[in-house]
Records
---
Amino acid sequence: RELYGGYNVYYVCPISLVPEAINSMVPIRNLDDLQGLKIRLGGGGFVAEVFTRAGATVVFIVGGEIYSALDTGLVEAGEFVLQSSSFDKGRHSRL
């Protein structure tokens, strides 16, 4: 914190974010396409804030309910941590 303090930065903790695809039932080509989009997230925090500010409607549901949420229209899109875990769970076959 002493090192960063000279730059008016308060170091909290390290964070590593990787690029992540959004699995969606509708095309998402730009930020305007997020307006009103019902998107599944597994938790709140920073990611939920970003999607909310972009105009999406964030829906918090557990991973095991993604299929039924897509089938019933509860959500139109979602993320599931890494694409490799989405592939392992067969989500690519439905989207």
---
Amino acid sequence: MAAPTQVVSIAADFAHSDCRLEREGFPRILWIVLGAVGYPTPPQYLGREYVERGVPRCRVHLVVAPHPLHLEWQPLELEVFGYRLADTRESAAQRALTTFCAPWVDDPDWLLRFQSSQALVAAMPTESAYTFVRCMKAYARLQGLLGEALPGMAERMAESSHTTKTDKDAQIADLERQLAELQVARDAGVDREALLEAQLEDAQWELGHANEMLALADAQFAQMQGQNGGGNGEDEDPEEAEDVSEMDTEENIPSPDRPPSPAGSEASVNNLDDY
């Protein structure tokens, strides 16, 4: 038996089922084939239906337990995606059947069966035709299930698209309303800014006028002080007057005569001696 190409984990929210083996279809054919080669238990189907981007989807995980006698046969495990549980299980069983029946060059039993298949068809035409008809009926059933799923999926997608369009239209209308409110707020801000600029200009003009009035008042005050200083020029400071009087007094006091020098005195004496 061919080994599976991929092994995937089993999620906790999958719906466990061994499928209805009494109903004709690929799950029943797969179980008949597996039971004929010694498998004790039927395959297990674990499926979960969900919606992805508005499209109904289904995921089926199929597991075939290891063969009790042929330990070299690896457990068959695969995963198939579809639209509903019914068609996805059929697709999973068909894929498992083709995977299990694929030629395996290392198995002599399989080579013997495969090489003698034409002889078996010739020897048992009724059984071969019956098996072929069952497979074709199962395939037709699978196509019918897919045909039923596709219109429902298309209708679901149309409803989802309509709902999405309605939601988008409502979102656009809400955004337009918010944009209008922002524009009104912006206009109010512009008006407020213009008003503040006008108030600032008025305040600056008033400040300049006040500075001019203050400068004029300072000039008038300085002029008045200058006039008052010129009229009282004859008045003197008492301290300055006192200093001047002291200097005049010192100048009016006569300085004492200088004493005669010794040479002068001696000359005077000599003159007296001459007399």
